[in-house]
Amino acid sequence: MRSKKIMALLLTTAAIMGMTLTGCGNKINEDATFATLDDTTITMGVANFCAKYQQAMYDSFYMSYFGEDMWSKDVYGNGSTMTEDVKKDVADNLEEMYLLKAHMGDYDISLSDDDEAKITKAAEDFIAGNSKEAIKQIGAEDIENVKEMLRLNTIQSKMHDRIIKDADTKVTDEEAAQRTFSYVVINTSGYTDSDSNYVEYTEDDIAGLKETAASIAAAEDFDTAVTDAGYTVSTASYGSADDEDSTMDKSVLEAADQLSAGQVSGVIETDSALYVLRLDSEFDEEATAKKKESMISQKQEDYYNDILDGWKEEVKWTLNEKEWAKVNFDDHFKQPETDNTEAADESIADTESVNTTEAE
């Protein structure tokens, strides 16, 4: 669940976050209204901290790949900048967390004194493990901003675990049934030469690849033939030829459906590759068990999201666009060069203690 990942990141980086200032710093009015959920007011102090914390994580993990101007780039190709994408995610997540907080009583969920003590300790460690400049820029000078985010995440974790208990998780073996096949894939588009140039195959090259695929299909020992030809045997499991979860070309799955256990297919040609298959199991118990777990988890998440969507329709959520627009990611966070592994390990322990609290 996303909230648990956010919680873990916050606390495990408590002692390894530093900052380099490249702008004019944090000028957010923390008492201003970020949004209202019916009669509940969420402050800019909390929203800014959540946003800047997310920024710190992205700066740490992605800036080396996308460059220091990544926040102004359309990284995902969806027509918006990374700043806009992250701020939307933060706003959406805050709406959901405050909805969950508002419905705690419906599920007899509460924060215990022990929860509050762990939250306070984690917040104090976070502040102590960062530079004054970073704490100011991230909006954590008021420890209540940090504690509120930790409370919200703890509530979200408890509520999630409680809500999914009501989901219908019945999945039969027939619904989850998986067939498993081994296969070799031979690319027919092209290759990268020794000078790292991409070269398309000629018609003669493709003809030779088809001969290789045909020899594998006709061989008595599929595994040996694939290896001797310089390729690798892979395996895949699927439910049916119409399996939407499979990444395989439909023609490959249709061919697999025609095989009995132990049979090898002929050469299957797609737009960019040649395949040869061997069906290993018509009912793979292990793969079926894993698929069943996945289907149950999906049913739980669908139920959880349906509950949230229903609550959203019943309330009025108003975002203060003017104040929210003032949050930017111009100042960048970075990890310091010093080794703080021991302190980080202590933060991990704190994370687990807050995250693993069971619903009461």
Automatic annotation (TrEMBL):
Record has Signal as a keyword: yes
Biased composition (Acidic residues): 339-349
UniProt keyword Translocase, yes or no: no
Stored PROSITE patterns: PPIC_PPIASE_2 (PS50198), PROKAR_LIPOPROTEIN (PS51257)
A GO molecular function held by the record: peptidyl-prolyl cis-trans isomerase activity
Biased composition (Polar residues): 350-360
UniProt-annotated stretches for the region Disordered: 330-360
Boundaries of every PpiC domain copy: 176-281
UniProt entry keywords in alphabetical sequence: Isomerase, Rotamase, Signal
Segment forming the signal sequence: 1-17
Pfam family, one: Rotamase_2
Protein name from the UniProt record: Peptidyl-prolyl cis-trans isomerase
Organism the protein comes from: Roseburia zhanii
